[in-house]
Each structure stands twice: as structure tokens, then as C-alpha cells.
Design goal:
Elements (H helix, E strand, L loop, with lengths): L32 E6 L2 E6 L3 H17 L5 H14 L8 H5 L3 H14 L4 H4 L1
Antiparallel strand pairs: 1-2
Helix pairs in contact: 1-2, 2-4
């Protein structure tokens, strides 16, 4: 007795050629975020985009040239980094920033830079 194996037909919509990989273009503008504890509260930080990093680097160069001997150049750069990456920080004024402990702002800024792939310790 000879038996013939049944022929399998592909299911509709199950053809591998119908599956299209995600387009990288669809990811443009998408933000990656994570929670970070700042002064006992969770804040949402975003990874900086290439454009934001370039903008921060440009501002850092300008600040270092213009205000090399002024103490507020560091706080101005911290404000730029934090306003770019922390949800709701773009609403803060210079006076608001000056009310925070400096070490907490520095830690937050460093976390943003590391999360964005710009590890300052490795960059030196």
C-alpha cells in the first residue's frame, strides 16, 4: 500500500514575501525615554538626537569663547542639556534652575549625556 504525503498549501497572508520589515524612516522623530530619580522624584529623560547634541556642542563652544571667565557659563550649558532632554524642563526659568542644588543638576545632566551615548568620562 503506497500512501502519498498530503500537499500543504500556504495559508493566505502567511507568505514570507508579504512581510515587510519596519522602515527606518518610520522611526524618525521617535524619542527613547527612561525614568530617572531627581531630588527624590521620578522625571522622564529622553535620549538626545544628533541635532540636539550638535546644538549643545555649538552652544558649549560659544559659551566657552564668550564667557570663559564667567561662572554662569556652566549653568547655562546645564540648562541647555536639561531643557533638551527632561520632560517639562523647557518651562523652567533661570531662577528655577538656580533654586536646585548644583550637584543634583550636574548628576542629571551627566545621566542625560551617558544615556544619549556621550559618556564625558570616556570622551576625555
Amino acid at each position: 500500500m503506497t500512501s502519498k504525503a498530503p500537499t500543504l498549501k500556504p495559508l493566505k497572508g502567511n507568505n514570507m514575501s508579504d512581510i515587510k520589515p519596519s522602515s527606518m524612516k518610520s522611526l524618525v522623530g521617535r524619542k527613547m525615554t527612561k525614568k530617572y530619580e531627581f531630588m527624590g522624584e521620578k522625571v522622564t529623560i529622553s535620549k538626545l538626537s544628533v541635532a540636539e547634541v550638535m546644538d549643545i556642542q555649538e552652544k558649549a563652544r560659544a559659551l566657552s569663547e564668550e564667557t570663559a571667565d564667567q561662572d554662569d557659563s556652566g549653568i547655562a550649558l546645564l540648562m541647555t542639556v536639561i531643557k533638551s532632554a527632561v520632560e517639562g524642563a523647557d518651562e523652567l526659568t533661570k531662577e528655577d534652575f538656580e533654586s536646585f542644588p548644583m550637584d543634583e543638576l550636574s548628576k542629571l545632566s551627566q545621566e542625560i549625556m551617558v544615556y544619549s551615548g556621550i559618556d564625558q568620562a570616556r570622551g576625555k
